[in-house]
Amino acid sequence: MALSGTEDEIRKVALSYKVSYEKVLMPGSDQYMIDHTSFTHVLDLEGRYVGYFPPGTSGQRPAEQVKSMLAVRSP
């Protein structure tokens, strides 16, 4: 899920996860892009931070972590 909210809300969350970002205006246009760090942060179902995956992480590693998180919740 992507982060959304007001500029102040996004700044607060970005700072808490040490994420850097910058609004980059497109030359000759009023459009922009957001340049940002590309770590994937993982939160559990209660919204608690449980880890992150750096760029280039294989799909197997996140799949294993999610499986283990779901196994903990199973009755």
How would you concisely characterize the structure shown here?
With 75 residues, the chain is α+β, with helices and mostly antiparallel strands. The protein contains two helices and four strands.
Explained architecture:
By secondary structure, the protein is α+β, with helices and mostly antiparallel strands. It has one domain: Glutaredoxin, CATH 3.40.30. Helix content is 32%, strand content 25%. The chain has 2 helices and 4 strands. It has helices at residues 7-16, 60-73; strands at 21-25, 32-36, 40-43, 49-53. The strands form 2 sheets. A two-stranded antiparallel sheet has the order 1-2. The protein has a two-stranded antiparallel sheet with strand order 3-4. The protein starts with 6 loop residues before the first helix and ends with a helix.
Portion in helices: 25-40%
Weakly predicted, low-confidence segments: none
Q: How are strands sequenced across the largest beta sheet?
A: 1-2
The tally of structural domains comes to: 1
Q: Please provide the count of β strands.
A: 4
Envelope shape: elongated
CATH topology: Glutaredoxin
Give a quick account of the main beta sheet: strands, pairing sense, barrel closure: 2 strands, antiparallel
What's the tally of helices? 2
- Tell me the CATH superfamily: Glutaredoxin
Annotated CATH architecture:
3-Layer(aba) Sandwich
Overall average residue pLDDT: 86
CATH class designation: Alpha Beta
Based on CA atoms alone, the radius of gyration comes out at: 16 Å
Q: Can you tag this structure with a few keywords?
A:
75 residues, Glutaredoxin, two-stranded antiparallel ribbon
